[in-house]
Structure formats: C-alpha cells, structure tokens
Amino acid sequence: MKKDIHPQFYTDAKASCACGAIFAVGSTKQELTVEICSNCHPFFTGADKIVDTAGRIDRFKAKQAKSAAKKTSKKA
Length: 76
Fold this sequence. Notes:
Layout: E1 10-17, E2 22-27, E3 31-34, H1 42-45, H2 53-75
Parallel strand pairs: 1-3
Antiparallel strand pairs: 1-2
C-alpha cells in the first residue's frame, strides 16, 4: 500500500441504530448512524413488517374508476 493516501481506519467505530442498539464495527468514520440493523430487521427477528398495500390498491382502483368514468362521459 502507498503511504499517506488511505483514510484512518477505526476498528472500534460506534454504530448506533434507530432502534437504539449500539455496536462496534470497523469503519473509516468513528461514529455511524444506521436506520436498521440485525436487532430490528424483520428477516433476523422473524416479525412481519406491516405494509399498507390496501391503501395503495384502493387509491389505484379509485384512479382507474375515475379515468373510466371520464372516457365514458366523452363518448356520450
């Protein structure tokens, strides 16, 4: 490796998650903030993530019905 071109590497950098978990990682930054970690990720916890797909589907159907109503009113 060339000298003086690589950033400082911290082997005990502190990573803090939005869920409150704090753990040590290796990084070029001394402190990291992450949104999700293995303590709160649904794959690791086994808990399902609630997704509001019903709201999206209802909005889509309403939009389609509104579009269909405009098409039929133009033909009449």
